[in-house]
Automatic annotation (TrEMBL):
<protein>
    <recommendedName>
        <fullName>HTH gntR-type domain-containing protein</fullName>
    </recommendedName>
</protein>
<dbReference type="InterPro" id="IPR036388">
    <property type="entry name" value="WH-like_DNA-bd_sf"/>
</dbReference>
<dbReference type="GO" id="GO:0003677">
    <property type="term" value="F:DNA binding"/>
</dbReference>
<dbReference type="InterPro" id="IPR036390">
    <property type="entry name" value="WH_DNA-bd_sf"/>
</dbReference>
<dbReference type="InterPro" id="IPR000524">
    <property type="entry name" value="Tscrpt_reg_HTH_GntR"/>
</dbReference>
<keyword id="KW-0238">DNA-binding</keyword>
<dbReference type="Pfam" id="PF00392">
    <property type="entry name" value="GntR"/>
</dbReference>
<keyword id="KW-0804">Transcription</keyword>
<keyword id="KW-0805">Transcription regulation</keyword>
<dbReference type="InterPro" id="IPR008920">
    <property type="entry name" value="TF_FadR/GntR_C"/>
</dbReference>
<dbReference type="GO" id="GO:0003700">
    <property type="term" value="F:DNA-binding transcription factor activity"/>
</dbReference>
<dbReference type="InterPro" id="IPR011711">
    <property type="entry name" value="GntR_C"/>
</dbReference>
<feature type="domain" description="HTH gntR-type">
    <location>
        <begin position="12"/>
        <end position="79"/>
    </location>
</feature>
<dbReference type="Pfam" id="PF07729">
    <property type="entry name" value="FCD"/>
</dbReference>
Length: 227
């Protein structure tokens, strides 16, 4: 396996960098199902202490990418193509409906905040350095879009789905940010126009496009593993 050590510059946002690196390696198929990740080994590989490795593994357990077992440590449980299909299909169905129901309750302040978040996202560079901020802004953007929905159960279901891989997808699909920027621009525009059907449509397409890109990445990693 290649050298994955983090540079001194990376340590400025150490916790995020460690988690991002391990997540990326898992999603790209660097580990086999059931492979054990030890804190000592990965602290050495990345040139960090065990603490950020421990915290990263806890976060990856929340995302469903590892399973922490007593006396065995973290066991890799890569997200499968079927997992991606399920998560993103559900997100598209639920979030599309949520933004449709939410739009009548969004006021000018909400719309202005959506525009502000969009402007901040497009101003960021498409590199790992800015990904942490981008992911936070992206999560806030989508939260505002659905926050006005009066159906509390659907919002609860969506929040549960966001606790896994969706929050961190931009970190492994950063080369697709231009597509996301255009979709976010359209979301802001349709929100301004109070066009609920168009907002629902672009939100669903945005989520399903992300699904398709993740599936392509998983398929590619599986082919490399077979070869």
């Amino acid at each position: 396996m290649e050298n994955f050590r983090l540079s001194d510059q990376d340590r400025a946002t150490l916790q995020f960098k460690v988690t991002t690196k391990l997540r990326e390696l898992i999603l790209k198929g660097e580990f086999k199902m059931g492979e054990r990740l030890t804190q000592e080994e990965w602290a050495k590989n990345l040139g960090v202490s065990r603490m950020p490795i421990r915290e990263a593994l806890r976060q990856l357990e929340v995302e469903g990418l590892v399973r922490i077992e007593p006396r065995r440590g973290a066991i890799v449980t890569p997200i499968s193509a079927e997992d991606v299909e399920e998560i993103y299909q559900l997100r598209a169905l639920l979030e599309g409906q949520a933004v449709l129901k939410s739009l009548p309750f969004l006021d000018d302040e909400d719309i202005n905040e959506l525009e502000r978040l969009y402007e901040k996202m497009i101003a960021l560079k498409e590199d790992e350095k800015d990904m942490e901020e981008y992911m936070e802004l992206n999560a806030q953007f989508h939260h505002i879009l659905r926050e006005g929905c009066p159906w509390r159960r659907i919002k609860g279901f969506i929040d549960t789905l966001w606790k896994g891989i969706p929050s961190y997808t931009p970190s492994v699909l950063s080369h697709h940010l231009k597509e996301a920027h255009e979709e976010h621009r359209l979301m802001v525009e349709y929100a301004k126009q109070k066009n609920g059907e168009k907002l629902k449509e672009v939100t669903e397409n945005h989520i399903l496009r992300t699904r398709d890109n993740l599936l392509k990445m998983i398929e590619k990693s599986e082919k490399i593993d077979v070869e």
